[in-house]
Structure formats: C-alpha cells, structure tokens
Amino acid sequence: MRRPVLAGNWKMHKTASDAAAFAASLPEDVRSERQVDAIIAPPATALDHLSRCFEGNAIRLAAQNMHWEAKGAFTGEISADMLKDLGVRYVIIGHSERREMFGETDASVNLKTKAAIAAGLIPIVCVGETLAQREAGQADAIVVRQTNLALQGVKPKEPAGLIIAYEPVWAIGTGKVCAADEADRIMGVIRDEVARSQGPAGADGTRILYGGSVKPDNMADLMRYPNIDGGLVGGASLDPDSFAALVRLSRPTPAK
Ligand code: 13P
After folding, report:
1. What kind and span of H or E run contains 83?
2. Residue 173 C-alpha to ligand 1 middle, in angstroms?
3. Does 95 participate in catalysis according to the annotation?
4. Residue 120: left (phi > 0), alpha (psi -120 to 50), or beta?
5. Is 196 inside a domain boundary?
6. pLDDT by residue, tens only, the chain of 256 residues
7. What is the DSSP letter of 234?
8. Nearest atom of ligand 1 to the alpha carbon of 236
9. Which residues span the domain enclosing 168?
10. 214 Cα: distance to centroid of ligand 1 (angstroms)
11. Ligand 1 centre and the CA of 232: distance in Å?
12. Would residue 32 count as lying in a domain?
C-alpha cells in the first residue's frame, strides 16, 4: 500500500515568525505523525526557521520551487543543495501558478524534476488542466502530456521518490473541489501515463495527490478513492488545527 501524503503549500503566506507560531501550536499527535508523510511548503524565507522548529519531529519540509542548476549566476534562484542543507526533503515543481505567472514550462519542469531527484530531494510535480481546457474536453490529453514531458528521462531510485499532484487549475482557491470520483478517474489516467515511463511497479508505488480547494470537510471523501494518495493543500493548510485535521483524515483506513 502507498503511504499517504498530506502537503500544505503555503504559497506567499506567513513570515518566518508566523511560521514559528504555527509550529508551536501544531497538535502533538500530528507533530509525531507515523502513518502519513506530513509536509509543509512554506515560503523559502521560513524554511530555515521551520526546520529548527520541527527538529526531531515527523513534519517534513518542502520548497515551493528550485532551480535545476547546482550553482551559478542565477540571481534570485535557489539550488537543490541549498534546500537540502536546510533539511528540506521535498520540492514542489511546476505549480500552475508558476506555469501561469512565472513562465514555468514543461521543459523547465522536466529539468527541475531530474535535478531534484539527482540531489536526493523528492519532487512533487504538479499537473492539471484549466477550465477552458476541461470545457473543451481536453483535460485527459493535457494531464497526459504534462506528465509525459515532466517525466522524460526521470528515474527515481524508488517509486516513493516521485510524487505527482493533480491540481485542476479551476479548483485552486475557488472553493470548487473536483468531484472525488472524477479526480480518481483522471488520476488513474495520470497513473497509466506514469506506468509508461516508470513501468507498472513504478506507477503502482508513485504517490499521486489531489489539490484544489481541499478542506477538512471534503478530505475523507477524496481519500476513499484508490488513486488518491493524499492532498496538496493551499488555503486550508495555513491554520494549524485545519492542517492537523487534514493529516488525521489522510491516515489509512481499513476500507482502503
Ligand atoms: P487551495 O487548496 O487553496 O485551493 O490551493 C491548492 C493549491 O494550489 C495547492 O498547491
């Protein structure tokens, strides 16, 4: 069985001090979580501080982005080694906000995914269609293409070393969650595409997360479905009690 993942993407929210206050009020059972990979992706400015706050705890850290080169004249960029040095284990790659607003392309997503794995980080690669693409009946083709291009030449040491997040753009921050059965269906399509590059065992072990208006009141329904291995959560991850509830709701149930 795949180990569930609950990742909070804080986007451009919280100073390092705000992040420390969040860490201090996170309930103990979640700080010492055993059944779920519980991850927070704060702004880069809070990574160092949060890494100290969570030392000895089960909570892991993700960056929201990285550069694919190891070092060099890339003003404003951060390398995988710089993240690892702060104790970061995961990195979100190709979030739709970066694709839409900051020129992220399928080619840069692929370079970053390969660089993250080479450096020993676990990439959380985001794919998902826009509303116009869904309405034009192109959702499946879009996510298949994004997954295919992201994974060109990608070889994690083990399937758990790669995470994909299906985030339909129309569901992000809108309160419109994708119906759980439809999310499961399209995530099955993504898993089939992962099988093409990683083989059946690789696809079977790859965690695929749903993202887009996940809240404590819709998480349990999503987690009932076989292709949904957890969530990538924006707004509802900013509050410690809500984040804790989401982690608890991601724990494996006998039914799954
Ligand atoms: P919301 O949960 O706020 O819709 O954001 C989803 C997201 O983009 C996570 O990466």
Report:
1. helix 80-85
2. 6
3. yes
4. left
5. yes
6. 899 999 999 999 999 999 999 999 999 999 999 999 999 999 999 999 999 999 999 999 999 999 999 999 999 999 999 999 999 999 999 999 999 999 999 999 999 999 999 999 999 999 999 999 999 999 999 999 999 999 999 999 999 999 999 999 999 999 988 999 999 999 999 999 999 999 999 999 999 999 999 999 999 999 999 999 999 999 999 999 999 999 999 999 877 7
7. S
8. 2
9. 5-250
10. 7
11. 7
12. yes
| Active-site annotation holder among 67, 95, 97, 129 | 95
- Domain membership of residue 10 (yes or no) is yes
Catalytic hit among 33, 97, 129, 167: 167
Please state whether beta strands 37-41 and 90-93 pair in parallel, antiparallel, or not at all (unpaired). Answer: unpaired
> Distance (Å, rounded) from C-alpha 7 to C-alpha 23?
15
Nearest atom in ligand 1 to 11's CA: 10
For the Cβ of 218 lying below 6 angstroms from any atom of ligand 1, the answer is no
Residue nearest to atom 5 of ligand 1 (CA): 234
Closest CA to 123 of 89, 146, 77, 98: 89
Q: How far is the CA of 250 from the centre of ligand 1 (A)?
A: 16
The domain tally of the chain equals 1
52 by Cβ neighbours in 10 Å (0-12 / 13-18 / 19+) ranks as: exposed
Q: Which residue type, as a one-letter code, is found at position 232? A: L
Q: Does the beta carbon of 40 lie inside 6 Å of ligand 1?
A: no
Residue with structure tokens 């979640």? 30
Q: Report the CATH number that the domain containing residue 217 is assigned in CATH.
A: 3.20.20.70
pTM, to two decimals:
0.98
Mutual orientation of helices 216-223 and 240-250 as an angle, nearest 10°? 10
Residue 8 Cβ contacting ligand 1 at under 6 Å = no
CA of 142 to the centre of ligand 1 (A): 19
Q: Does 256 reside within a domain?
A: no
